[in-house]
Amino acid sequence: MLNAMVALSIIVIVVGVYFSVRKKINSVKVNNISNLLHRLRPETLRELILLLLILLVVIFFSIVIDHYLNARLFNRVSTSVAIIGILAIGQALVVLTRNIDLSVGAVVGFTAYFVGQQLSQNNEMTPLVAICMAIGIGALMGSFNGFLVAFCRIPAIIVTLGTMALFRTLLVEYSDAQTVLTVNLPQWLLELPRINVVSYEGLHFRLVVAVMCVVVILFHLILRYTSFGRKIYAVGSNPEAAANSGFQSRKIIFITFVMCGALAGLTGFMYLARFGNITVVAGSGLELKSVAAVVVGGINIFGGSGSIFGATLGAVMIDLLENSLIRWLQISEFWRDAMLGMLILCSVATDSVVMKRFRKYRLKKITQKEEKL
Amino acid sequence: MQIDNLNIKTPSSNNIIDNDFRSSKPPVLEALNISKSFDMTQALDGVSLEMRPGEIHALVGENGAGKSTLIKILTGIQQANQGELRLSGLPVKINNSQEAQAYGIAAIYQEPMLFPDLDVAENIFISHQDQGFFVRWDKMYKDAEKILNDLGVRIDVRNPAIGLTIAEQQAVEIAKAISMNVRVLIMDEPTASLSDHEVNQLFRTVMQLKQEKNVAILFISHRLEEVFEIADRITVLRDGKHISTNLCSAVTKDGLVREMVGREIDQFYAKDETRTVGISVFSVKNLSKESTFSNINFELHKGEILGFAGLVGSRRTDVALAIFGISPADSGSIEIEGKLVEINSPQTAKKLGIAYMTEDRRQLGLVMSMSITSNITLASLSKYLIRFGIIKREKERKTANEFKNRLQIKTTSVEEEVGILSGGNQQKVMISKWLNTQPKIIILDEPTRGIDVGAKAEVHSMMRQLAEKGFSIICISSDLPEVLALSDRILVMREGRQMGIVESQHATQESIMSLAMGQSKESNYA
C-alpha cells in the first residue's frame, strides 16, 4: 500500500515536470538539469515543491504512526479537502485581485444553517433546489462584500471583517439558538457524503470529492482560458496597467467577490451534508484555513500570481497535516494550530527568499539567451 | 548647429576661472570624477563639483543630464561606480542617507517629505536620536521656535504639518536640516511648485542660511531667472558630463542655454524628408485642467508626428492623460475627424482609436508577471474570444509572433514573462499591445527612455513607418534632438502652458529650449 502510494506520487511529479517543460523541450534541446530548471516558471516550481512536501509529510507520518497509510486516511482527507478546497478556490479568486474575504466562514455557517432549516421543515424539497438556494444565498452575501469593496472603495480586510461578524450575528438571530438536527434532515442528504463515484479495495472516491474536482477544473480553465481570468490576473498584478488597457477593474473585483460567496454557499451545503448537526458556530475558523490554503498554495497575497491548482494543493496540505496530527499522540492538540501557523509562515518565507533567488537566477539565464539571439 | 559647438568653452578655460575662485575658501564637499552607469546608460561620466561654505552653487542641465543621479550620490541614496567624494578635503564614503546626514549633508526636494500628522517641532527634530528616551516637549518647542526665528519664518511650531503651504513645509525642511548642523544643503527644484511670492520667501530663508550659518548650498532649478537671481556659481551638466563651471557674473542666459543643449548630432538623428501630411484628424481646443494645465490648442493631421517638448514639470504627460481619459480635463473640447467627442475613460479613448503608450512601462504599461502574448492582446482581448469568453490561444500566439517578427522583439518564446525582457524589448511589447488595438491616433510618452541606442533607432524608424502609413502620432520626449528629428511640428510647454507650436524645419534646439525655459518666442527669431 505504502509503496503503491509513493510510486504514484513520484509518477505524478515526474509527469508534472514533463508537461510543464514539454513545449519548450521540442524547440531547444535540454542539456542538463540547470537548463531544465530555468525553463520552469517559478509558479510551477512552487507547486512541484508543494507536491513533494505533501509526499514527505505522508512518508514521515507513515513512519511515526502505526497503520497510518490506509484507505481510511485517503477517504477521510479527501472528503475534508472537498470542503476546504472549494472554499479556497473562492478565496483564491479574491486574493488574486489583491483583496481578501474573511467572511467566508460565516457565509458557510449561515448557508449551512439556513438550508438545513428549510430542509428540516420541508423534506420534500429537491436536491437541486437546495443546492441552488445555498449558492444563491452565498452569492448574495458575496455581492454585499463586493459592492462595499469595489464600489464604495472600502479596504476588503475591513469590509469582510465587519461582514464576518454581521453574517454570524444574522445566523444567531435567525436560528434563535436552535440547532439543525440530523434526525430532521431528509434521507438523501444524509446519504450524500457516502455516495461513491468509484470504489477500489476500500479506497472510496466520494461524490463530494468529484464535485470539488469539477469546481477546481472549471475555475482552472476559467482563469487560464477566458478573458475574465486574464483580467483577474491583470487587475491583481498591475491595477494601473489594467485600467489603462480599458478594463473595468471594479466590476471584475465585484464579480470575484460574488463568485467567492457563491462557492462559500456551495461549501455551506456540503458542510451541512457532512455534519448534519449545525449549530450557530458552524464554519467559524474556516476563513483562516481558506486563507492559509491559498497562501500555502503559492498564491501571492499581494495579488496577480498563483494558480487554482496551487490553492487546491495548499488545501490538501493543510487538511493532511491536520488529520495526521490528530492521530499523532505525541503532539498535543494545542500544537496543531501552531503547526498550521508555522506552515503559513514557512510558505510565505520560501516565497520571498527562495523564489526570489530562483527568479533572479532564471532572469540571468534568460537574459544570456536573449543576448545570443 | 556647428556654430554652437564652437561657442562652448573648453575645459581648460574653466579651470582658470576655478583657480581664481579657489583662493577664497576651501571647499566643504568635493565630488571628483564621479561616474555612474545603469545597465545600458551612462548617467554620469567623470563629473566633478565643488561646494564652498557660504556659497550658492547652481546646477543646471536638461532632463536626463545627470543632475538627479549626482544628488543621489551626494546624499548616499546611490553609490558612484568611480570617483570619490571629499568632505573638508578628506575622502569619505557615503553608503546611505543616514551617513550623509551624519556628515551634515541634507537634501530638500520639490515635494517636501514631512509627516503630516506630527506637529512642526516634531517634524524638525524627527531624526534626532540623541535626546534620550523621553521627549522633552518644552525644550523641543523652544528649540524649534529659535531655529525658525533665526530663519525669519513665522510658523506656530505646535501646528500639525498638514496645514502648511508648500513654502512653509520647505522652511520646516530647512529648519530640520539646521537642527542637524547641516554643512551642505542640496535643494532639488524647490521652487517648482511655489508661487512667485513663496519663491521670494524661500529665497530670503536661503540667503539667511548662506550668510548666517555659512552653509554650502547646491541649488537645482529649471528656471534660469531664479538661478541668476540667487546663485554665486553655475555648473552645467549635459548627457552626464560636466560642461562648465563659471561665476554667475561671467555667463549670460543665452550662453547657458547653448551649453545645456549643444550636443553633437549624430547621423541617426538626421532629419528625414518632410512627410506629406494629410487632413486634420484630431483637434484640441482650449483644453484646461484645474492647477495642471490650461488652454492647450492644437491640431493633428493624418500621417503627422507632433512633438511635445518641455522640461520636467511642464505637464506634457498630464495633457496626454487627459486626452486618453485617464484623468479627463475640466474644460475645453476634443474633436476627432470633425466630430466632437467626450473622453472620460480609457475605454472610450480606446474605442475612438486613441492609443497611449505610457512613459512608465513598469508601473502603468505592462503586466510584468504575464507572458508577452497576454500583454500584447491585453487591450484588444475581445478580438480573441470565441464563445463564453474563452480566449482563442492559437490566434493570440499568431498575433504575438507576427509582432515579434515585425518589431524584432528578442525573446526565446512569446510565452516568456514580460518582466524578464530588457527595456527596449519591453517597449516593443507595449507598442505591439497598442498597435494591436488598431488605433488612428498614437500618443507615445518618452518612447525611448531607458533603452539602448540600437533599440532607440529601431523605435524611431518604426515611428516614421507608422506616420507614412497614415497614423497620426503625438510624441512626448525630453530628448530634444529626437523631437527635432522625428516631428513635423513641435508643441512646446512650460509649467502647464502652451508656449507655442513651431515647424521643426525652422526650429533649433536653442529656440525650443528658450521657449521651454520661458523666454518669449519673438526673441528667439530676433
Summed over residues and divided by their number, the pLDDT of chain A gives a mean of 85
- Number of beta-strand segments of chain A: 2
> What kind of sheet is the major sheet of chain B?
6 strands, mixed
Rounded to the nearest angstrom, the radius of gyration of chain B is 25 Å
Helix content of chain B: 25-40%
Largest sheet: spatial strand order of chain A: 1-2
Can you offer a commentary on this structure?
- The complex is a heterodimer of chains A (373) and B (526).
- With 373 residues, chain A is mainly alpha-helical.
- Chain A has a single domain (42-372), classed as ABC transporter involved in vitamin B12 uptake, BtuC, CATH 1.10.3470.
- Chain A is built from 16 helices and two strands.
- Chain A has a two-stranded antiparallel ribbon.
- By secondary structure, chain B is α/β, with parallel strands linked by helices.
- In chain B, helix 10 crosses helix 19 (509-516).
- At the A-B interface, helix 1, helix 10, helix 11 and helix 16 of A face helix 12 and helix 13 of B.
Index terms:
heterodimer; A: 373 residues; mainly alpha; ABC transporter involved in vitamin B12 uptake, BtuC; two-stranded antiparallel ribbon; 2% strand; B: 526 residues; alpha/beta; six-stranded mixed β-sheet; 36% helix; globular; disordered N terminus
Write the layout of secondary structure elements.
The complex is a heterodimer of chains A (373) and B (526).
Chain A: H1 2-27, H2 33-39, H3 42-64, H4 71-96, H5 104-121, H6 127-151, H7 156-175, H8 187-191, E1 196-200, E2 203-206, H9 207-225, H10 227-237, H11 239-244, H12 249-275, H13 286-296, H14 308-327, H15 333-352, H16 354-372
Antiparallel strand pairs in A: 1-2
Helix pairs in contact in A: 1-3, 3-14, 4-9, 4-12, 4-13, 4-14, 5-6, 5-7, 5-12, 5-13, 6-7, 6-12, 9-10, 10-12, 13-14, 13-15, 14-15, 15-16
Chain B: H1 2-7, H2 11-22, E1 29-38, E2 41-51, E3 56-60, H3 67-74, E4 82-87, E5 90-92, H4 97-102, E6 105-108, H5 120-124, H6 137-150, H7 166-179, E7 184-188, H8 196-213, E8 216-220, H9 224-230, E9 233-238, E10 241-247, H10 253-261, E11 280-289, E12 293-301, E13 305-309, H11 316-323, E14 331-336, E15 339-341, H12 346-351, E16 354-357, H13 361-365, H14 372-377, H15 393-406, H16 423-435, E17 441-445, H17 453-468, E18 472-476, H18 480-486, E19 489-494, E20 497-503, H19 509-516, H20 521-525
Parallel strand pairs in B: 3-8, 3-9, 6-7, 7-8, 13-18, 13-19, 16-17, 17-18
Antiparallel strand pairs in B: 1-2, 1-4, 4-5, 9-10, 11-12, 11-14, 14-15, 19-20
